[in-house]
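To assess whether the prediction recovers the assembly geometry, we first specified each molecular entity separately, as shown.
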Amino acid sequence: MERFENSAEYSWHVCMSALMLKDYANEAINIDRVIKMLLIHDIGEIDAGDTIIYSSETAELKSAEAAGVARLFAMLPEGMSAEFLALWNEFEAGETPDARYAKAIDCVPPLLHNLHGNGHSWRAHDISQEKILGLNARIGLGSTELWHVIRKQLEEAFEQGILNKAL
Amino acid sequence: MERFENSAEYSWHVCMSALMLKDYANEAINIDRVIKMLLIHDIGEIDAGDTIIYSSETAELKSAEAAGVARLFAMLPEGMSAEFLALWNEFEAGETPDARYAKAIDCVPPLLHNLHGNGHSWRAHDISQEKILGLNARIGLGSTELWHVIRKQLEEAFEQGILNKAL
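The predicted structure of the complete assembly is given in tokenized form:
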């Protein structure tokens, strides 16, 4: 099918990845909280739209997502709304073991899509090797082991010209 | 977008539904197990294909799904593979509180799609009112309260001819 993965498909994909890779987390994590965090982490995109990660972390887009999250969670019973909002903020801040691992895994599926798809979205959006390595280094904050393997694959792909060196 | 929801989108959708409706479960449930169960419950469709529930519960299709599940889970580390397979079988059997609730919620999103979409897939597949009420009665096994509300909506829709009475 010639289209990009949407946020719902992606959310399932990233939850499955987190579940399968949980033993590689750097710190002790609560995988159930991580899954819940990842189920809801992109819900702001219903209102704000979906952008690739390299251009999504602007103040403007983050505030549109936060407004979307607030609008949607306000429809839920109060306790649930507060719980989900706290989880969403915890993910965004990325300062707890669960959030560090969740944010690490959030980088993995799009990176693998690109690695095995000749860097298609990196090319389309003109993302430099430096940016690719820079942003994805956050994988190491959640899982040193995973980042070690992926970094090596990335460098080999750059070396072999599988990804355009001039990117 | 003029297409049906696929299994990945649906799996996210049903996990979110389970999370939001958890307080309506008949029995004490472990929502984290339910979410895990629902994340993986349709994975057999990668090999077996996706069919509407009214025609999916045949011995042939179930065995194709079971074969797909066995093939995919065999790629995982042993402990994880055994855990996921046990969860998948528990869901299929539907005999524990977690599985009863999960199977109940598994009926809800497609039913709401049909209720709010003039019964499109029920019409397309020629599903009778009797079959609709019969299959979805399993919602009551997981949540009497939810089935009470949904059954009423279904009967009103049949009454008002929103769904074709002659279905």
